[in-house]
Amino acid sequence: MIGFLEGKLRAKSPDYVIVDVNGVGYHVQVPLSSFYDLPDLGKPVMLNIHTHVREDAISLFGFRTIAEKETFLLLTGVNGVGPRLAMGILSGISPEEFREAVIRQDHLRLKNIPGVGKKIADRIVLELRDKIAGKNREKAGPAQPFTEPGNTFPDAFSALVNLGYRPAEAEKALKQARQGLGEDPSLEELLRQALKALV
């Protein structure tokens, strides 16, 4: 069971990264919250890992902070929430905001996350409220800027659609975000501003 990986960042996208550990490339799925905090390609990176084993596959899920990993594990312990939905939830809300929403029983905030309907939101609050109440919140470290030359609009659009947003609303939010950011925003900033517009 892999608990963490430390190596060089060989590839990164809003969905996954490849970490080179002594010549072996590990394909690791990451939420947007971790994607925002990644270093530049070729730089050292450390990810907290959850190894998910199924009959037909072994998947690695990576997180920049322990708080993200703990939230992911809490979510996957909820009936009806699998790893893919848990990653989508972490891409739409920070661990701190998620815990506060659960403690306050803010069903509406949870339902605003793509893929989370009323039934799932109710179940999350019901099953996690007591587990989360009273726990210390761990704040994530400052994000590193993501610099990628060229047009980042298609990558951001694809990431939002993969998160469950409708193409029309994703495009509208990205256009709105790009107006406020200038001609050539980074993929990180474009996604940040678009998600704010979509909440």
Structural commentary:
Helix 4 (95-103) packs across helix 6, helix 7 crosses helix 9 and helix 8 (167-181) crosses helix 9. The chain folds into three domains: 4-63, Nucleic acid-binding proteins (OB fold (Dihydrolipoamide Acetyltransferase, E2P), Beta Barrel); 66-132, 5' to 3' exonuclease, C-terminal subdomain (DNA polymerase, domain 1, Orthogonal Bundle); 153-198, Helicase, Ruva Protein, domain 3, CATH 1.10.8. The protein has helices spanning 32-35, 66-76, 83-92, 95-103, 107-111, 118-132, 153-162, 167-181, 187-198; strands at 4-12, 16-21, 24-29, 44-53, 58-63. The protein contains nine helices and five strands. A hairpin with a 2-residue loop joins strand 2 (16-21) and strand 3 (24-29). It is of the alpha+beta class. The termini are far apart. Strands 1-2-3-5-4 form a five-stranded mixed beta barrel.
Order of helices and strands: EEEHEEHHHHHHHH
Strands, total number: 5
Radius of gyration: 17 Å
Structural category:
alpha+beta
Count of discrete domains: 3
Q: How is this fold's topology laid out?
A:
Elements: E1 4-12, E2 16-21, E3 24-29, H1 32-35, E4 44-53, E5 58-63, H2 66-76, H3 83-92, H4 95-103, H5 107-111, H6 118-132, H7 153-162, H8 167-181, H9 187-198
Parallel strand pairs: 3-5
Antiparallel strand pairs: 1-2, 1-4, 2-3, 4-5
Helix pairs in contact: 2-3, 4-6, 7-8, 7-9, 8-9
